[in-house]
Write a structure and sequence with these properties.
- The chain has 8 helices and 28 strands.
- By secondary structure, it is an alpha+beta fold.
- It has a domain of 326 residues: Methylamine Dehydrogenase, Chain H, CATH 2.130.10.10.
- The strands form 7 sheets. Strands 1-28-27-26 form a 4-stranded antiparallel sheet, with no helix packed on it.
- A hairpin with a 4-residue loop joins β15 and β16.
- The relative contact order is 0.10.
- InterPro entries: RBBP5/Swd1, WD40/YVTN_repeat-like_dom_sf, WD40_repeat_CS, WD40_repeat_dom_sf, WD40_rpt.
Amino acid sequence: MNAPIIDPLQGDFPEVIEEFLEHGVMKCIAFNRRGTLLAAGCSDGSCVIWDFETRGIAKELKDKDCVSAITSVCWSKYGHQILVSAADRSLTLWDVLKGEKINRITLQQTPLQARLHPGSSSPSLCLACPLSSAPMIVDLKTGDTILLPVCISDTDTASSRGKVLDGTQPFTPTAACFNKYGDLVYVGNSKGEILVIDYERVRIEAMVPISGGAVVKNIVFSRNGQYLLTNSNDRTIRIYENLLPNKDGLKFIDEIMKELDELDGAEKLKAVGTKCLTLFREFQDSITRMHWKAPCFSGDGEWVVGGSASKGEHKIYIWDRAGYLVKILEGPKEALIDLSWHPVHPIVVSVSLTGLIYIWAKDYTENWSAFAPDFKELEENEEYVEREDEFDLNPETEKVKELDVNEDEEVDIVNVEKDSAFSDSDASQDELCFLPAIPCPDIVEQHDKCVEISSKMIDDDNSGSPLSEEAAVNGRTTNHASSPLEVLDNPDDAGGTRAKRRRKPSEKGLELQAEKMPKEVSKKVGKAS
């Protein structure tokens, strides 16, 4: 689509369902950082990678040891690995290009979500959020785990680890995520608090209380790391502005700690929290008061999107950062279970309860007057009467203005300008954006049936049955236009079609019929005389 002919007043957000993808029963999705590949976890334990440009399957990752549903998928920074968590408590790291397992470990609890460390090109650490345990840092090479504190009283990791292993204390699933470069972990707990944790020292560095104290169900950063989104049980989506620098956030926190030496305990953590996050906006449906599912940011962070958690409806709400609801996308009567915004384009991808992936795109309206202000669009054809001098050549008045271009200036064709959306890319790293296409064999079941039916018809023809001979003698014509495919497409008429096919005489049958024809004719002539 040409950018100049797009109406600039149209919002840069999706509006209609452009297409849907179908492969088994898909449960969760994730784009790579360029948006060229889409990974989808299925209910049978497989992970399907779609080429988002061609909308075809580029690769399928299937672990024979895993037959449980996939709970989450996560790409590495440069797209060479995918981390897959499953309901059988496993975490599997895949090599995308080779389609081979790198590591596979089994946790004590089912991981609802797992995220690779975002600051490494070949990460070995991941953040897992189990069903009945505190979030943990997992070393995928050694299998070692470090439980993170989920409240201020749990800073002693040994005591928290004992509680989880004994299973004596009920636990509410806790949401957690890395910051942009992965030096801090942000945890949303069941007390309505956001904890900023240094996972290397296993220490809470700051705490931000959420108004109302509702359980935090989701927590996610925007792509640029400037905003943090939380989804709570009080049916409200909150946006916080990140006041820490994206890099070296720990050093900044340590400096704040030194300035607040006079405070201690929870008061000190709250004071540091005010220097880390500040509430920016709240989103909610004040009329229906619905719960939200899989909220996230757009690729540029300008839009906030959330799916309705109501059963039997597939609604997606889109707000701008100012807090205004700009669009409600209404899909089929199927519950929504996952949602993702394309990293670059105004495209939203949603997963329904039936396992289909719906692709929502923008309904573009071309504005041809962008080429010339005096351009006029006609509703219907009109007869045009040209002026007498309209097409006369006037060389003096039609001189083309020469462009002020320095022809001696050297053009840089070596260096590549960095895209602002990927400003953190390392030029020395080879990024995996596309996968080689693997041709799939055609389905031959229907073809085999056609061949079988055709062979049966040929056998019947070679038998030279009296039915075919009688048909030829009586001058009955046969239907040779029908094909075996028609037989398969019309099973009700299959018997009649095959019967017609049997009347087709073979070469030997034709010879016999040619010999018998004069005899039959002579007999009839004798009787008539």
